[in-house]
Design brief:
globular, 18 helices
Length: 573
């Protein structure tokens, strides 16, 4: 630390007009308690700085010393904390806000696609193009190499997918292709054989192999039939170095979008060490919470024993203390619902009612954080009962920030219960729009319930802390600005297919979802989520002040700079 003495300040100094000769409020902090204030490393001036701090909503300058914010001011007075080594950054009116949080992503899966380790089918516009892309990719593979791809769309294959379609274009390579939701897999005949899946293979609990007339699997695997068989194989085919490269590639994508903190929503067994290695080497450019997978085919006792081997408290950069329950599938088909779909089905819960209740109780009793995937209202109902029983047994700790994610369909009574138990909501606002997938959902859900999907407004009004996540790569539109705009308009800014019924959020509320609310969900609001003296210098700079442009143009703003712990980890220049 540099020893240039600025003044005999104490640890915390609030400068006002009389003390500082400035007609503004300014807050500064020293690095130590010895009345020495080192010169700031960086001072940002002339900015439109939105702090998310109620004590000073807007600022013009901000100083960083070490990894902390050391001054924030309504004028450029933070420049007074400079010395001869300080870097001055003129924001020239650009928009600064706290580093963004994404509380639901699958960074390794997204990174494999962004880095080219797997074939990315998300941009395909038709069944024909999807098959042509697979054909071209397969022709370049080495002999006996597996073909792994992700991103085929259900509406391109309205009658479903089958193994024969892949057999014709995969050139003898065993092939697994995940849908764009990641909840359905598409296998060719060779992959089924190498995985030992045949007519005698039973459907797993919470999953289904679509069958041909003679009972042989067709090549389409739903929910746990895919997530318990082919999906783990996809990652196991990657070397550790390729997995680490995928994490770094995915994190770099996030950094370019202003994201400095994220929740890895499901961390596959055996990959926790990849994150730890990168963090220890200083190569993980984000604050990360890992959700550990709860194995549906194991007992609570077996799961707790496994979690005790995988969980770790870590530090402010990396922690693994949350447990992911995949409660059901996707809205419109396999999401488990209390009232039937148009075809009379109730979806496909991954757990039985008693299974989920006992699992939730066991995880809560052992001090882990619950993180429940629920697109329908049935898993929410069951999990809430598990939490009620845990609380009754004095084995529920609300301070863990237990989280329910997605919540496509949820009742108002369930929202009220979430608020009562201080359960967090992690949602994806870009889903709450008219888009290609919702066209399929509309056919399956009666109008009254369709018009009551994605109750973000009701959650906030009930006092639930609501944060945002992309569920990347399930949703290829990973840019938080797309989600922030969607939360305000309930119209997808790219697909522009119309607005979905439901309450709108204000811009401030939407920004909070991706800043302070995300920090609260990640249990780090003491160091991130708002711009305040003493907090970490996690910052993002946009080229436009979002409050000064039309809501329909929010997604057009571009990230100019992303800063983590005072260090620039992305620059557009």
């Amino acid at each position: 630390m540099r020893k240039s003495i600025r003044s005999a300040f104490t640890v915390l100094i609030v400068c006002v007009l009389a003390a500082c000769g400035e007609s503004d409020n300014r807050t500064t902090i020293s690095e130590d308690q010895t009345a020495q204030l080192a010169g700031a490393d960086t001072v940002y001036i002339n900015g439109d700085i939105y702090t998310l701090n109620s004590q000073m909503a807007w600022a013009k300058s901000l100083a960083v010393t070490g990894k902390n914010i050391s001054c924030i001011s309504e004028t450029n007075s933070c420049v007074d904390t400079k010395d001869e080594n300080t870097r001055i950054v003129d924001l020239a009116g650009k928009f600064m806000l706290p580093g963004l949080h994404d509380t639901h992503t699958h960074i390794m899966y997204g990174g494999t696609l962004s880095s080219g380790a797997w074939l990315n089918l998300f941009d395909s516009q038709s069944a024909e193009q999807t098959l042509a892309m697979i054909d071209e990719y397969a022709s370049a593979l080495a002999p006996d190499e597996w073909l792994i791809a992700s991103g085929y769309k259900y509406d391109h294959f309205p009658s479903g997918v089958n193994r024969q379609q892949l057999d014709e274009v995969t050139h003898g390579h065993p092939t697994i292709v995940s849908s764009d939701t990641q909840h359905t897999g598409w296998y060719n005949t060779l992959a089924l054989a190498q995985l030992g899946i045949d007519a005698n293979t039973p459907n797993p609990e919470g999953g289904e192999f679509t069958r041909e007339t003679d009972g042989f699997p067709s090549g389409e695997a739903k929910e746990m039939a895919h997530m318990g068989t082919g999906a783990p194989r996809m990652l196991s085919l990657l070397t550790q170095e390729k997995r680490k490269a995928a994490i770094k590639a995915g994190t770099a994508v996030y950094n370019s979008l202003g994201i400095t903190s994220y929740v890895n929503a499901l961390t596959d067994i055996g990959t926790e060490g990849d994150f730890r290695d990168l963090s220890a080497a200083g190569e993980l450019n984000a604050r990360v919470n890992l959700n550990l997978y709860y194995q549906v085919d194991k007992s609570p006792e077996e799961n707790i024993a496994s979690l005790q081997q995988r969980a770790f408290s870590g530090d402010e950069m990396l922690r693994a203390n949350s447990v992911k329950f995949v409660g059901d599938g996707v809205i419109g088909s396999t999401a488990a619902m209390e009232q039937p779909y148009a075809d009379g089905s109730l979806g496909l819960p991954i757990y039985s009612e008693q299974q989920l209740i006992e699992a939730v109780k066991a995880v809560s009793a052992n001090g882990y954080r619950i993180y429940l995937h629920s697109c329908g209202d049935t898993p929410v109902k069951w999990a809430l009962e598990g939490i009620r029983q845990a609380q009754e047994a004095d084995q529920y700790d609300a301070s863990k920030r237990h989280t329910f994610t997605h919540l496509d369909y949820i009742s108002n009574d369930q929202i009220a219960a979430m608020a009562e138990y201080d359960i967090q909501a992690s949602v994806s606002p870009a889903w709450a729009t008219e888009n290609y997938f919702m066209n399929l959902v509309k056919l399956a859900i009666p109008d009254e319930r369709y018009d009551n999907l994605y109750k973000f407004r009701e959650m906030i009004d009930a006092g639930v802390n609501v944060s945002g996540g992309a569920d990347w790569p399930t949703t290829p539109d990973v840019d938080p600005l797309v989600y922030i705009q969607s939360a305000i308009t309930r119209e997808h800014p790219i697909e522009q297919a119309g607005s979905l019924a439901g309450g709108l959020l204000t811009l401030d509320e939407a920004l909070r979802m991706y800043t302070i609310n995300g920090a609260i969900q990640m249990q780090q609001e003491d160091i991130t989520g708002s711009l305040e003296v003493g907090k970490r210098a996690d910052l993002v700079v946009l080229d436009k002040n979002l409050f000064n442009i039309d809501a329909a143009d929010i997604y057009t703003a571009k990230v100019q700079m992303t800063v983590l712990n005072g260090n620039t980890i992305y620059s557009s220049h």
